[in-house]
Design goal:
By secondary structure, the protein is mainly beta. The protein is 10% helix and 38% strand.
């Protein structure tokens, strides 16, 4: 249970150094002895600089995942487990696990991730399979007066008699951090100090949040997850540009390091730790819970209570959403099954593209739609398009990727870009309800001469494959979805694929309609 005090006053900021929060200087583990090792585990014990005992346990728990816990006697557990375990019990792990020791250090391996511990003097670092350091304990981070700018690895008794556990890692100059759950502001979190604590935010302009998660991903290629329900403080280069610090007023500091080249590479291991999120009972709940489907505020947000032009625009936007529901629902299923998010920050979708670190006002919706919301009153926006060609959903303009664009669009125009070559499953009928499968499925072909798309529905999964040769487009469907319409939007760009002269679906000819200059459409003969 959360203490009542957290709702009426800010949680204590335990990381101000130097300061008066601590009863004395932060206590550090400076040396330890190896108690036991083997089977992918190692246990160390030693005194803190305040003379009180400390125990460190490290274990390989899955491929690329290592758990480290610091407590007084090795028996301490997060207090939140008395009400709700944030991390579930994992099955024993043996694949790729090893604990090796020599006179100077202990190496603990979990597949492609290695923890290297030097007991005396105490040091801890994590490496990838090639020996590249991902993160290492910070030591000696001081200002010009010699005052510390980071907290050591240890546990300190506070002025009120309680204890807080703490640790600091070195931060590289070019390292950026993402995560921490719901946060209002830029996606990049370097330079911030946050407390993982749930409060009624009463808006989106402050530090209070409804969904705080003590976990982050680093562009260095790792994720760090803290297993604690206490108000855990995470300092990502705020107190010192050179340091990442974690402090938790709990009975232990337990954290997991995950080898993850990109943010989405951490989602699978994180789901293994916390459990899978069940799929919503298909269309009704999905529509109700989608973050794109609610207008939030204290005054009326009903479209018909607004100006007539607002109502008309909102109705058109809702119709476009209903048309895209087969794509949205299929993308949601794929996201859960593939261990990634439905709304994908650009840094998550393209972690190797450094430009995406600044593209935090847009996201990918599934794999083939890029959403760039217009937030300025004058309609001007800067959009970054990743590699490949992208098609403006509203204007049909084609833009090469790997560059920034400055565009101006009216509020009623869809802020969407379609990946060139995409096959989008749509609902070709009138907008009616999201509570059941559409009567028929349509397919939009965006500059593709061939490709495949998977359509997930309550009635089953359907594979649709397109191949084009000699002016003939051939579609094959494998599954229960009844395909009733195919459209090729007109693309003005030079080099865009020509419209086909003939279409077959499952070897049966369809009728092509060329009457519209905006699109070629096809229906069963």
């Amino acid at each position: 249970m959360l203490p009542l005090q957290s709702l009426i006053q800010p949680p204590r900021q335990a990381g101000d150094l130097p300061g008066t929060t601590f009863a004395g200087p932060p206590a550090a583990l400076t040396r330890a002895r190896l108690i036991s090792s083997g089977g992918g585990r190692a246990v160390f014990a030693g005194p803190g600089s305040d003379g009180e005992p400390l125990t460190v346990q490290a274990a390989a728990v899955a491929d690329g995942v290592i758990r480290v816990s610091l407590s007084r006697d090795g028996a301490g557990r997060p207090r939140a487990e008395a009400a709700l375990a944030l991390v579930r019990d994992l099955p024993p792990y043996s694949g790729g696990a090893a604990a090796e020791r020599d006179a100077a250090e202990v190496r603990l391996q979990a597949g492609a991730l290695v923890a290297v511990v030097t007991p005396d003097p105490w040091a801890l670092r994590f490496e990838d399979a090639a020996g590249r350091t991902l993160l290492a304990l910070q030591s000696g981070d001081t200002d010009v007066t010699g005052a510390p700018c980071s907290v050591p690895f240890g546990c300190t008794r506070l002025g009120d008699g309680t204890c807080t556990f703490h640790i600091s890692f070195a931060a590289r100059p070019d390292e950026q951090f993402y995560g921490l759950g719901e946060r209002f502001g830029p996606l990049g979190k370097r330079g911030t100090r946050t407390v993982a604590w749930i409060e009624d935010a009463l808006g989106v302009s402050g530090r209070k949040v409804y969904k705080a998660v003590p976990a982050f991903w680093s562009t260095r290629g790792y994720a760090l997850v803290v297993n604690s329900g206490a108000p855990t403080e995470i300092d990502l280069g705020h107190t010192s540009h050179s340091t990442v610090s974690v402090l938790t007023p709990d009975d232990t500091l337990e954290f997991f390091v995950i080898a993850a080249a990109g943010p989405e590479d951490a989602i699978g291991p994180l789901r293994a730790l916390t459990g899978d999120v069940p799929l919503p009972p298909r269309w009704a709940w999905f529509g109700a819970l989608s973050p794109l489907n609610r207008y939030h505020g204290n005054t009326s947000r009903l479209p018909w209570d607004q100006a007539p032009e607002v109502y008309a625009s909102t109705r058109d936007i809702a119709a476009a959403r209903y048309r895209l529901l087969p794509y949205l629902y299929s993308s949601a299923i794929d996201a859960v099954r593939d261990g990634r998010t439905l709304l994908r920050p650009m840094i998550a979708a393209c972690p190797g593209d450094r430009a995406t670190r600044d593209a935090d006002g847009q996201y990918l919706l599934g794999t083939d739609l890029l959403v760039a919301p217009v937030t300025a009153a004058d309609g001007e926006q800067d959009v970054y398009l990743p590699a490949g060609d992208w098609i403006d959903y509203a204007t049909r303009a084609v833009y090469p990727g790997s560059r920034w664009l400055r565009l101006t669009r009216p509020p009623e125009q869809a802020p969407l870009f379609v990946r060139s070559g995409a096959l989008l499953p749509v609902d070709p009928g009138p907008a009616a309800s999201a509570a059941a499968d559409p009567e028929f499925i349509g397919l939009e072909v965006w500059g593709a001469a061939g490709g495949q798309v998977t359509v997930h529905e309550q009635r089953g999964t359907t594979q649709i494959t397109l191949a084009t040769s000699g002016g003939t487009a051939a579609l094959t469907t494998d599954g229960p979805a009844p395909l009733a319409r195919v459209e090729w939007p007109m693309l003005p760009a030079p080099g865009a694929p020509d419209w086909p002269r003939r279409l077959t679906v499952n070897a049966r000819p369809w009728v092509l309609d060329r009457s519209s200059p905006a699109r070629l459409s096809a229906t069963p003969a």
